[in-house]
């Protein structure tokens, strides 16, 4: 399990093509990514020694880099192999993997055409994102004051570091009120997602989920849609307004970190942890562990 301070952990991190001691993988304070958010990343989980959907995650990493104008000096295959080596060299079986690509420090300003593109991969043991007791009772979500931006104001389909600042602000505000997380609406006032996970709702035996037109179409989201369809459950992707939550019976989040996590509350709206949610939780757990 990770220590309280991530910079003091032990192990090996892959950085710019070589493995280095964990505490030696430092960057300069004038790195462009720190000042201007020019970084993209992925979150992956390894189960039983296998990184789930590794190729899909790396493909999205490279797509995000392209959206930010980064010419990555490694291939997807090289990053995939480095992730697997990182898992092996650190001796983990169940773990969390974080690849990141960023602009360096050659230029300091808005322009950064001459900055070197760097990459690193860190991996560590990380248990459930939420405490298991809270997760099984159903997570409680506040409603954020921040909204997901419009597609013409930010690269909304990139997993870009800078886009997560409003997520941090939203989660901090929710936790200060005693909630587990926050639900974010989009620039139109429609339901979008939680701070780091997609959302699904259950009504009359069908699944409803927001159309991901201004936020990430999560890899776990797509996986769960496939699992639901395999069970014969109809999945409806559409615009969902906040007041519709009054008529939904169940709700849950999906994401690499949260996996499939039931909700009991979103603001004034309440849900049960019902059979469909439990079934999809079970299906997902079996799939990622090679049992499905």
Task: Please describe what this structure looks like.
The structure is a single chain. The protein is of the alpha+beta class and 292 residues long. It folds into 2 domains: 6-124, D-amino Acid Aminotransferase, Chain A, domain 1, CATH 3.30.470; 132-288, D-amino Acid Aminotransferase, Chain A, domain 2. It contains 7 helices and 16 strands. The strands form 2 sheets. Strands 8, 9, 10, 11, 12, 13, 14, 15 and 16 form a 9-stranded mixed beta sheet that branches. Strands 1, 2, 3, 4, 5, 6 and 7 form a 7-stranded antiparallel beta sheet that branches. Strand 11 (198-203) and strand 12 form a beta hairpin. Helix 2 (54-67) crosses helix 3. The model has no long low-confidence stretch (mean pLDDT 95).
Distance between the termini: 27 Å
Instruction: Find the CATH superfamily of the largest domain.
Output: D-amino Acid Aminotransferase, subunit A, domain 2
Structural class: alpha+beta
- Counting DSSP E segments of at least 2 residues, the number of strands comes to 16
CATH architecture classification name of the largest domain: Alpha-Beta Barrel
Inertia-based shape: globular
Figure out the total of helices. 7
Question: What is the string of SSEs from the N terminus onward?
Answer: EEHEEEHHEEHEHEEEEHEEEEH
If you compute it from the alpha carbons, what radius of gyration comes out, rounded to the nearest whole angstrom? 19 Å
Question: Which stretches are poorly predicted, pLDDT < 50 over at least 5 residues?
Answer: none
